[in-house]
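Q: Start with the shorter request: fold the first protein.
A: Done. Sequence, then structure:
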Amino acid sequence: MALERILIADDHSLVRDGLRTVISAAFDRFELFEAASLDEAIAVIEREGSLDLVLLDLHMPGSNGMSGLERLRASYPAIPVAIVSASQEFGVARDALAAGASGFIPKSLRRSAIVDAIRRIAAGEIFFPEDWSDAGTPAGPAEVDILRRIDTLTPQQKVVLGFVVAGMLNKQIAFELDVSITTVKAHVSAILNKLNVFSRTQAVLLATRVNFHATSTETPEGHH
């Protein structure tokens, strides 16, 4: 993927300036857009159309925690979103990837490492700091692969997967979402296929391994 149109969404001008400097030194011929709030970021996307990458801060006006990321992934699923955060917590990074981020880039990384992370994300990889761990357990390739598979799910399928993880039956999910059991079965079948598993139990084991949980209970649009 060519990096020609990049949006930096962060409410701190010094952070935006720093990222602009890093990107300008490493990449040629690109357009750079900036936003200081989630609403500004959405306005830029609506105005400019397709972007090659959004670098998003988790905490800024209009966004608290994963809410901004979830909104962008639901509204613009074709645009890769990488989190650039001051957080050093493994759990925060893991949750961001589970919510659909294409990578988690700590602001504390060296400039060369930030450039490498952006290049890897542009190449279709999911970036995660290799030396981070949760209670001494490395976030290995297996976890990243699971997150990559979950990211291929549609927003509606992620909601259904969250209900499956919570132990709900098809008829209960159908009631919660106000859709037919046939629709739920179709979603579950698609989820199993995309996760490359053969049973609901296997899907639950994969999802819980990366701490996936439902992020929305809105009724999927276009399904009755």
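Q: Next, the second protein, separately.
A: Sequence, then structure:
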Amino acid sequence: MSAVSPRLPLTSTRVAITADRRGAELAASLERLGATVTWGPTMRAVPPEQDELLEVETRAMLAAKPTWLAVSTGSGLRAWLQAAEGFELRAELETFLGRTRTVARGSKSHGSLRGLGVEPEFVSRKETMDDVCSWLGEHIDPADVLGVQVHGGEVVGTLDALRPRLRAVVTVAPYRWVLPLDTGPAERVVERLVAGEVDVLAETSAPSVRNLFVIAKRMGAHADLLRTLRGRVVVACVGPVTARAFEEVGVPVDLMPTRPRTADLLRSLVHRVEAGDPEGPEDRGPGAPQPLSAALELVPGACAVRMGPTVVRLGRQEFAVLAALVRRPGVVIGPDDLAVQAWGHRAPDDATKIRHYIARIRRKLMAQGERLQTVRSVGYRYQPLPDPDA
């Protein structure tokens, strides 16, 4: 008698992805977990070795002789070095990296620098360029020149506050994102989302999210896509930068891991499905997760939250704490992690201050404040739906 194959955790879950470079790898991982995947890249990277502008930017960077270098991504740094080899500039670039004070956006960029024998002076625990720029603001001099390895232009805006305080800011973008040559696969993603044939939209980068809406607009399906993503589809994001791209157009995020890693996103999705509502709509598979109809809509650009017709403005740290919870509904987050989200490199050693911030946020949210729940001796969580056990 043959053994019955075990049920895979994402069986009957229909997932759409729009990743470019690692899309095939992500699709394969989802399929191994049992998911049915629709993959349609919404962007493509201009190959660094074929990017004539990258050579121009590299030569300008070396000529400017920056006193500081901010590294945004590990993959971007590696691609930059590989492309510089084709420009016959790799040796000069490695010498520049070895003599320049560097800062890293997160653990991946830190790892790439250490692989070159370079130890950065600062690594953001928050893993954002905002935090890097905040730290630099306390250490730069007016005579300094700042070089920045950006990721497809995604972090250029965060440098605006530093520009008037420096002699110059020079940027280099090893990856530049443009629309794919063939938008057919991405259009199929839009069509299946709007037709109700997708349970989860899993996104790993902000440019791919923004391009998804660009493509939907060209198809005349922008409004339908927004309506779908605000309703029955679970929106899963790898991290806060990607989540913000959805929130900018009023789409709430249903799922985001504590660490911005693809593997953590997959684990969070599996956990969500396994703990999901078994009595979902008839048109969804039994393994499909249910979206959490968030009562709060984040408005990142205004540090505000929308509750129906009411808009509540928050302080910058208050918004950071609330966003960290709302973007991970149902997940308990400790006060130390929330402090890092709120203050970045300025996070106090004693995180009890978070308790006071939670109390202030609850007061500002009025009746909705009860959705911020305290888990004694552990931390806090955001419960978007009424807790039947409360």
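Q: Describe the second briefly.
A: The chain is about 40% helix and 15% strand. Confidence is low (pLDDT under 50) at residues 277-284.
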